[in-house]
Write a structure and sequence with these properties.
By secondary structure, this protein is of the alpha+beta class. The protein contains four helices and 29 strands. Keywords: Cytoplasm, Nucleus, Repeat, WD repeat.
Length: 495
């Protein structure tokens, strides 16, 4: 009768263990499914304050999580058994190769190499199995906190800038490459005023702090100040745009863009000329803003200068020079006579006009590409965004280095900060809009699918935190502006 070798006996023993364990797994799997079904029945029978749709979604997601982790547990057991078998095989080879015993260090090296490969396989399997569930859960949460409320369609070209009036009635303003600026009813989404005084792209729009007056900057090398009088239409009940967002995020083509004709601006009152035109630049005026009080305005231009004007007389008060390349943006402090200008020279500069007899300049260096915008926040902070895919938070008392840096996956355009809650809204070249706090913690990403969200580069964001319907607005080169409702308490709680 032939005698079994030690290796054959161990192989047969391992096979029997595998067979018995497989039966055990099947029994465990069956009992776990029955238990999961009983738990679901018990949960569904309990009283809950959650809406049924949300409750069903949560139950389904948790069921998927349980099934995936059960599968991972089974795969983990199988991998551990393979590791044990491999170690036994290596140990056997160590006793028989060339009749000499391998050193303990050599055995340990071989076993360690094989074990690391299997461990990597386990990690990869875990990530692949759970990523879909985690992604769907995050998407559901994001849509519950950030909801699309209204779309503003009427421009015939991309929208560069967006702003919200600071006086009653509160209207939304957009500046477009189609040479117009439009004012919108936030509630109805209808255009209430069209400004057609420029002969070039309108690059920015800002509202006077106390009057119904707007300031626009243009590619025609001028900035215009014009007065508007609006009568807001009565809001009509509209369908909830968020109900259309059931699909996963997908890539959208330019064919899905809104119609260029846009009935929203075809029948609204038109303003054809300004009260005042500011004309001292030798290049495109890319941005403009009001100083505190509204008696002076500042403009930023591709001629590498920023100009400070007296609004009543249209006279040039100061020409701010020092940037080495074209300016990209300018912003004023809400309560102090401070101005910050951004440039393609990778810097932004702080100009101090609090002392009428002298104005000081501070240069902030830290970005490696064009600074697309820099804005003030409450206190002594400035937030800057750049084409280098970063956003930096600075303390005006310490210019040497930022106090926080946010790294993203796409160039950042004109940012805006929710002053009361200190939340930064980042518009990206890749069509995304992300929300961060001032310490650099990511809070949310606005949902984007084949039926909602921007389809091309997002150019600008604007907060209006006190508005009951929409508290965040975005605009992009897909020729539309969007109003969002951000549940800020829930957003900060998720943090």
């Amino acid at each position: 009768m032939p005698i079994e070798s030690g290796s054959c006996a161990s192989a047969r023993q391992a096979k029997q263990k595998r067979k018995s364990h497989s039966l055990s797994i099947r029994r465990t799997n069956s009992s776990e499914q029955e238990r999961a079904g009983l738990q679901r029945d018990m949960l569904e029978g309990q009283d809950s304050k959650l809406p049924s749709s949300v409750r069903n979604t949560l139950l389904e997601l948790f069921g998927q999580i349980e099934r995936e982790f059960e599968n991972l547990y089974i795969e983990n057991l199988e991998l551990r058994r393979e590791i044990d078998t491999l170690n036994e095989r290596l140990a056997g080879e160590g006793q028989t190769i060339d009749g000499a015993e391998l050193s303990k260090g050599q055995l340990k090296t071989k076993a360690s190499h094989s074990t690391s490969q299997l461990s990597q396989k386990l990690k990869t399997t875990y990530k692949a199995s759970t990523s879909k569930i985690v992604s769907s859960f995050k998407t559901t949460t994001s849509r519950a906190i950030c909801q699309l409320v209204k779309e503003y369609v009427g421009h015939r070209d991309g929208i560069w800038d967006i702003s919200v009036a600071r006086t009653q009635p509160v209207v939304l303003g957009t500046a477009s490459a189609d040479h117009t600026a439009l004012l919108w009813s936030i509630e109805t989404g209808k255009c209430v005023t069209k400004y057609v005084g420029h002969v070039g792209s309108v690059n920015s729009v800002k509202f006077h702090p106390t009057e119904q007056v707007a300031l626009t900057a243009s590619g025609d090398q001028t900035a215009h100040i014009w007065r508007y009088i609006v009568q807001l239409p009565t809001p009509q009940p509209t369908a909830d745009c968020n109900q259309m967002s059931g699909e996963d995020e997908v890539e959208c083509s330019d064919k899905d863009e809104p119609d260029g004709d846009g009935e929203g601006s075809s029948d609204c009152p038109t303003i054809r000329g300004p009260l005042t035109s500011l004309k001292s630049h030798q290049g495109v005026v890319i941005a403009a803003d009001w100083l505190v009080g509204g008696k002076q305005a500042v403009t930023a231009s591709w001629d590498r200068t920023a100009n400070l004007y007296d609004v009543e007389t249209s006279e040039l008060v100061h020409s701010l020079t020092g940037h080495d390349q074209e300016l990209t943006h300018c912003c004023t402090h809400p309560t102090q006579r401070l101005v910050v200008t951004s440039s393609r020279d990778t810097t932004f500069r702080l100009w101090d006009f609090r002392d009428p007899s002298i104005h000081s300049v501070n240069v902030f260096q830290g970005h490696t590409d064009t600074v697309t915008s820099a804005v003030f926040t409450v206190g002594d902070n400035v937030v800057s965004g750049s084409d280098d895919r970063t956003v930096k938070v600075w303390d005006l008392k310490n210019m040497r280095s930022p106090i926080a840096t946010i790294r993203t996956d796409s160039a950042v355009n004109r940012i805006n900060v929710c002053v009361g809650q200190r939340i930064i809204a980042l518009p990206h070249d890749n069509r995304q809009v992300r929300l961060f706090d001032m310490s650099g913690v990511r809070l949310a990403r606005l949902p984007r699918s084949n039926r909602q969200g921007h389809r091309r580069m997002v150019c600008c964001t604007a907060w209006c935190e006190d508005h009951p319907i929409c508290n965040l607005f975005t605009c992009g080169f897909d020729r539309q502006a969007i109003g969002w409702n951000i549940n800020i308490p829930a957003l900060l709680q998720e943090k």
